[in-house]
Design a protein that fits this description.
By secondary structure, this protein is an all-alpha fold. The protein is built from 16 helices and no strands. InterPro entries: DUF1186, SEC_C_motif.
């Protein structure tokens, strides 16, 4: 295995390229300059081949696990400028992008704020906002006054002025930070039709904010909404492919281990799609338990 072969596998593998990922993590010091150069080329638009899509997907996750601050600027640029972000990153935007951004941040909030305030993918901007909130609480990149001001400014000025996952992320971030003074802003968002109650309501806000207030580190609210550092890229991606228990539900060897890509195509052709992505926090859980989704499988 070498850098060229690892990149080839990242761009062509139908299944998770575990061997290449393990090698990359073990040889990060020598391999990372090439990886970062490839990610920067992708962010600049110089290389947008199908293979490059797959490479960017896996490199973003590896950089997240390795806390690679050199990936911070290109990833923020991709959030702000890449119209094809959902194509190559898929539901990883909501699942792992916040944790990736938390880990690669170098402490400078400007690239993250530029991504949040851009006209880019709304879910990715929301992921960036949740990462900013986590970093404000865990690392103090913004104090509470500055973070509150940022949320209020976004509430007034940011788009879209229509229902959007971005506003759900805004509300979740405010709640996870324990900002009770912004609770009524969530009510206003709902009144204006920017948030649907099935996705996030005042009860959700209070539940999450209560967790935040009761945690000495102030991070329990973020944990409740699934925002945490990405610690193990391979395990996370394998959990998507095989389910949380590590078993392949489809029992199909041709599809086993594929993630974010579809069964017949390589990684570059189709994003990972969470089958529960359209289920609201307050909807009945699809498992049939009779509980709300947020109290059942979402929590799990």
């Amino acid at each position: 295995m070498n850098v060229d072969e690892a990149l080839r596998q990242f761009g062509a593998s139908e299944a998770i390229p575990r061997e290449a990922m393990v090698w990359a993590l073990a040889n990060w010091e020598t391999a990372s300059p090439r990886f970062i150069a490839r990610l920067r080329a992708f962010a600049s638009g110089r290389d947008r081949s199908q293979a490059a899509d797959g490479q960017a997907f896996y490199l973003a996750h590896l950089c997240g696990q390795m806390r690679e601050t050199r990936a911070y600027a290109p990833l923020c640029r991709l959030i702000a400028d890449d119209p094809d972000l959902e194509i190559w990153l898929g539901d990883a935007i909501g699942e792992t992008l916040p944790g990736i951004l938390i880990n690669v941040s170098d402490g400078d909030t400007e690239p993250l704020l530029a991504a949040i305030e851009s006209a880019g993918d709304e879910a990715a901007r929301g992921a960036a906002l949740m990462a900013l909130g986590y970093l404000a609480r865990s690392q103090g990149v913004l104090d509470d006054v500055a973070m509150r001001d940022t949320l209020r400014r976004l509430r007034r000025e940011a788009g879209p002025r229509e229902p959007s996952i971005f506003w759900v992320s805004w509300a979740g971030t405010a709640a996870a930070l324990g900002y009770d003074d912004l609770k009524m802003e969530v009510a206003i968002l709902a009144k204006e039709g920017l948030i649907e109650v099935r996705d996030f309501g005042l009860v959700d806000f209070e539940e999450i904010a209560t967790l935040a207030r009761g945690d000495a580190a102030g991070l329990a609210g973020f944990d409740d909404i699934g925002v945490r550092p990405l610690d193990d890229a391979i395990a996370t991606l394998e959990a998507w492919a095989f389910g949380d228990d590590g078993s392949d539900d489809d029992a199909n060897d041709d599809e086993a281990g594929s993630v974010g890509r579809g069964a017949e195509a390589g990684p570059s052709d189709a994003p990972y799609l969470n089958p529960l992505r359209d289920v609201g926090r307050n909807d009945p859980c699809p498992c049939g338990s009779g509980k709300k989704y947020k109290k059942c499988c979402l929590a799990a």
